[in-house]
Each structure stands twice: as structure tokens, then as C-alpha cells.
Write a structure and sequence with these properties.
572 residues; alpha/beta; Phage tail protein beta-alpha-beta fold; 4 domains; five-stranded mixed β-sheet; 25 helices; binds zinc ion
């Protein structure tokens, strides 16, 4: 799309082109009109012949004129035609162009819809009074009103979409025709776009011009992004900008907005950056207040929207949906009590899990069922009914997994749910089939999604194999890991966490590594967290810290995908 400067240049060029009026000589020349139901275009062309210059009608073909004038000054004749037929009529070089106002405004609107703001250049000088027009002053006001209307309507559309070319946004904001109430929201979109494009100076300029005194939520969001960008661009204005615009309440507002948008990592990072500035500039009471704001935010109850994918066959049974909701309800109760995390079923879709026992085919089937949907978390239920007594089942299906949750494959969790047609639910059953087994599995797999690992502690829900009792409580180390990862984005994994959380988790993984005789993959998870830290430090322009964490990954040497990525970063 065009740049701000190019558009501005285009506007002023058009003004120059418009600004050559026909002059008093032409206007005084006498003309005559004899027309009965003649197209306006023809009448104008005829007048042109009489004065010896081009008079061009645009959008005037369908207008029919009945008029009789004899030896009338050309200027008076044009005034009459312009007022009668709402014409925007002015000299452009050696020709007089008379546009139907409706036609001209519609043409501009169509081009505006395609983001061509320079389309306004054809009419704005006329509306602004920079060009001499025939007809009364009312025409000019009418034109200005119509332009304001289309610009405001398009602006509202762009604002609703939340997407606009940043230059276009700033340019629109600068136009007097813009409804002033729309301006801050428009500039905010522009500022955020400029920040995204790495044009921090332009963003700061727009901020200073339009947003400095504004305290709307949109402005607070733009402020947060601009401040973060100024800091990382090592802008000489960063500290001054922060000092004139910071307040703890404003940080709380911005953090609340990040939280509503589920941008937890960005929000935390932003709040902690403010904390750093407050500490660095000796504002200790502000720093204390910020620490409190961050702690309160982290301590909030998190509600995770869950899409349940259920066997298409089972969904035809009206009891199935309730059964699934009860399962998620139990999961939610345990997590709310232990961690302040709720799970809310927002969607229930059908899927066809393959009979294959591997995970990959199951994930592929789940992704296919989801299509373009991107839920915060999807629980894939595989509901199987076996026509046998459970005592016969176990030896036959010894290696059948009953649930799978892995924090690195995306926002999916799989759980198998058995039922047997030959038993009653109250019977004492084998381990797989005891009451609560499916819910317990769900609680266990969900903990894996939050980064928890297996422990030998037989009273922890994180013991590797289910035994005769169901357990709902967590060992202390896994509890701390889950709390530190409480605000993770499942579709991103550990990369969605901020530095302090990753450091806590690494420390707790070290504790776990020493606590479990059976291998639990702690070293691999530690490597993954170090890689995540390396990426964060690299993005935050601390290359030395990034290298330190890469070295940790190289020293651990596994898993393969993490090692390869770390080696590539280290070499680069
Ligand atoms: Zn497990």
C-alpha cells in the first residue's frame, strides 16, 4: 500500500491541478441554452463550444435538462446548472469538469473501500474550499458532509475489522473530514501497525500528535505496545516517554486487556518491563504497587475454554454429551481446588478416532475434525464399548493406552473411555475399570499438558501407572510446576511462558529428576525450557543470556528436535 508521504504529495498535486480557474473573462462571456429533455452532458459540451474551452460532464449522461437562457453570462449559467443538478464544477487546467456529486462521491467511496485513500484527493480540495466552484456555498457544505459520511462509515468498518494499513489510519486521522470521535481508535490501530512493522519513530510521532492526552482503553493498549517497542528499539525517547505516560493504574488496565485477549506472556512481559523502569528510576512505591498488580493477576482463576471431540457414533446416544460434561466437570473441580484453573466446555464436536493405537493418527483425525477451528484446548474422547467382562479385557489389551497428554504437540489431549455391556457400574472392577478411572486419567494427562512429569510417589496422581486406588492430589514439586505454567498457551507450549516462570520450572524439574528412580524425561524438559529462554533473550536483545541457555541445551544433548534448533541458533 502507499506510503504516507506519497499520499500527501498526491493530495497537494491535485490541489495545484484544480487551482486554475477559468477566470472572470470566461465567466462574463455570454452564452445561450435552448434545451428540452437534453442530456446534461450534451448541454455542457455545447456551452464549451460557445466559450471555446472544454466543459466536461462526468456522471451527467442520465440527467435530462429543459432550459431556455438567452445571452446569459457563462458564470451565471454554470451557477444555475451546478445548484440545480448538484454539480461539483471547477476548472482543471484548461477544461471545466462538472461532476455529478452523487456519482463522484460513490466513485470515491468504491476506491476508498479498496484502501485507496488518495481517491479523496479528487474531491477534498473542492470540499475544503481550496478550489473555486460554481454554484452556491451550500454545495460545498453538502459535499463536505457526504465525504465525512463515507470516510466515517469506512473507518467504522476498518475499526470493526481491527485491521487497517497503518499509514492509511494515520492519514485518515489527519483528515478534517473524519468524525473526531473515531480518531483515537483509528490512530491506535495505526500506531500498533507501525510498531508491528518496526517503524517505532513514526509510531511515536503519531502518538504525540493524536494520543498523548487520551485515556481510552484502546489508547492504553497502543501505549503498552509502543512503550515495549521503544524499549527494545533502544530508542533515546524510551525513558522520557515512559516517565510522561506511566502510572501503575495504567499498567493494570493494560495488563487486564492483555489478559482478556489471552496474551498472557506479552502482558506479563510488559508489566515486568514497567517494574524494571520503576525500580531503575527509583520509584520504589510504584514498583511495589506493580509487584502487587502482577501477583494479583497471576493469582486469578483461569478459565480454559474446552472443545470436546466425541466419537460420532457415541454422540448419537443422548446420554453421551452429559457423560462427557460430567468428566470435564470433575476435572474442573480438581483443578480449581488445586490451582485455580477451571475448564469450561464451549463446544462439542464429532470425530472419528482411528482404531490405530498410535498417537499421531489420532491427532491427525482430531485436527481434521476441528478444521479451521482453533480452540484453546481440545479433549479428544475415544469412547469404546467392549462386549466382554473386564477380566477378559485386560490380558487382551495390556498395552492399550488410556490417555495421552503431551505439552509439545499442540492444544490436544486424548482420553479413552471404556465401558462394558456385561457389567454394572457398581461392581468392584479391575484397575482400568474402577469408578473414577477415566476422570483420574484426565486429571493426570492434563497435568502433563501443564508440564508435570511422572513421580514414584504412590499417593500422587502423577505416578506413572494407575493402581487400585484413585488419587486426586499432586506431589508438591509437580504442583509448583503446574502453578508456574498456569497461564501457558497450549498451542505454543513452553515458548508461551515468561522468563521467571521458565526459571522456576527448570529448578523444579531438577528437583524431580532426583526424585524419580524411573526415567521421567526431566532432562529433556529442562532442555526445552532452556531453548525457550534462549529464544526469549534473543528476542529481547540479550544475546549473551541467549547463548548461555543454548549452551545448557547443547550440554544436555536431547531431545533431538530441541538440540537441532539450539545448534542452528548457536551457529547463527
Ligand atoms: Zn503420564
Amino acid at each position: 500500500m502507499r506510503s504516507y508521504l506519497a499520499v500527501a504529495a498526491c493530495l497537494s498535486l491535485s490541489v495545484a491541478a484544480f487551482a486554475q480557474p477559468g477566470g472572470p473573462d470566461v465567466d462574463k462571456r455570454e452564452v445561450s441554452v435552448e434545451a428540452v429533455n437534453r442530456p446534461l452532458t450534451d448541454v455542457l459540451a455545447d456551452l464549451g463550444r460557445q466559450i471555446g474551452a472544454g466543459v466536461i460532464g462526468q456522471g451527467t449522461d442520465a440527467t435530462l435538462v429543459t432550459l431556455s437562457l438567452s445571452k446569459t453570462p457563462f458564470g451565471d449559467c454554470m451557477d444555475l446548472l451546478a445548484d440545480t443538478f448538484s454539480l461539483i464544477a471547477g476548472w482543471e487546467g484548461n477544461a471545466l469538469v462538472a461532476r455529478s456529486m452523487t456519482h463522484a462521491v460513490q466513485a470515491v467511496d468504491r476506491r476508498l473501500a479498496d484502501g485507496e485513500i488518495d481517491a479523496l484527493a479528487t474531491l477534498m480540495p473542492a470540499a475544503n474550499g481550496q478550489v473555486a466552484l460554481y454554484g452556491s456555498d451550500g454545495l460545498r457544505k453538502q459535499l463536505a458532509g457526504k465525504l465525512q459520511q463515507i470516510v466515517s462509515e469506512r473507518t467504522r468498518e476498518w475499526l470493526a475489522l481491527g485491521e487497517i494499513d497503518p499509514d492509511l489510519a494515520i492519514m485518515l486521522a489527519s483528515i478534517q473530514l473524519q468524525d473526531p470521535a473515531l480518531r483515537p481508535a483509528l490512530v491506535c490501530l495505526g500506531v500498533r501497525g507501525l510498531v508491528r512493522d518496526g517503524r517505532v519513530d513514526a509510531a511515536l510521532e503519531a502518538w504525540n500528535l493524536y494520543l498523548r492526552g487520551d485515556r481510552s482503553p484502546a489508547t492504553t493498549a497502543a501505549w503498552a505496545e509502543l512503550f515495549t517497542a521503544l524499549h527494545y528499539a533502544a530508542s533515546p525517547y524510551a525513558v522520557a516517554f515512559w516517565q510522561q505516560s506511566f502510572s501503575p493504574d495504567r499498567v493494570a488496565d493494560a495488563l487486564g486487556q492483555y489478559w482478556s485477549a489471552k496474551r498472557y506472556q506479552d502482558g506479563l512481559h510488559f508489566a515486568r518491563l514497567n517494574l524494571r523502569y520503576a525500580t531503575g528510576t527509583g520509584r520504589s512505591s510504584d514498583a511495589a504497587r506493580l509487584e502487587q498488580i502482577i501477583a494479583t493477576t497471576l493469582g486469578q482463576v483461569r478459565t480454559i475454554d474446552v472443545t470436546c471431540a466425541v466419537d460420532a457414533d457415541a454422540l448419537t446416544d443422548p446420554r453421551t454429551e452429559n457423560k462427557v460434561r460430567v468428566r470435564v466437570g470433575k476435572l474442573s473441580d480438581v483443578y480449581e481446588r488445586e490451582f485455580g484453573i477451571r475448564f469450561r466446555v464451549t463446544d462439542m464436536i464429532a470425530w472419528n478416532p482411528p482404531s490405530n493405537n498410535g498417537f499421531e493418527p489420532q491427532y491427525a483425525a482430531l485436527r481434521q475434525a476441528l478444521g479451521t477451528r482453533k480452540p484453546e484446548l481440545t479433549l479428544g474422547f475415544i469412547l469404546e464399548v467392549f462386549q466382554m467382562h473386564p477380566s477378559q479385557f485386560q490380558p487382551m489389551h495390556k498395552h492399550l493406552w488410556i490417555g495421552y497428554g503431551c505439552p509439545h504437540v499442540g492444544a490436544y489431549l486424548l482420553t479413552r473411555d471404556f465401558s462394558f455391556e456385561y457389567i454394572t457400574p457398581t461392581e468392584a472392577l479391575e484397575w482400568t475399570f474402577k469408578p473414577g478411572a477415566v476422570e483420574e486419567t484426565l486429571v493426570h494427562e492434563m497435568a502433563h499438558m501443564f508440564g508435570a512429569l511422572h513421580v514414584d510417589d504412590p499417593t500422587s496422581v502423577m505416578r506413572p501407572t494407575s493402581n487400585s486406588r484413585v488419587e486426586w492430589s499432586f506431589d508438591e514439586v509437580n504442583r509448583q510446576i503446574i502453578m508456574a505454567g498456569k497461564w501457558r498457551d497450549f498451542s505454543v507450549g513452553v515458548d508461551s511462558l515468561d522468563i521467571p516462570e521458565l526459571l522456576t520450572i527448570i529448578d523444579r524439574y531438577h528437583a524431580l529428576a532426583g526424585q524419580s528412580a524411573t526415567p521421567n524425561g526431566a532432562a529433556q524438559e529442562i532442555a526445552r525450557c532452556h531453548l525457550a529462554l534462549a529464544k526469549l533473550y534473543s528476542a529481547r536483545r540479550e544475546p549473551l543470556m541467549a547463548r548461555q541457555h543454548l549452551q545448557e541445551v547443547l550440554a544436555i544433548g536431547e531431545p533431538k528436535d530441541v538440540l537441532v534448533e539450539a545448534q542452528a541458533m548457536f551457529a547463527g
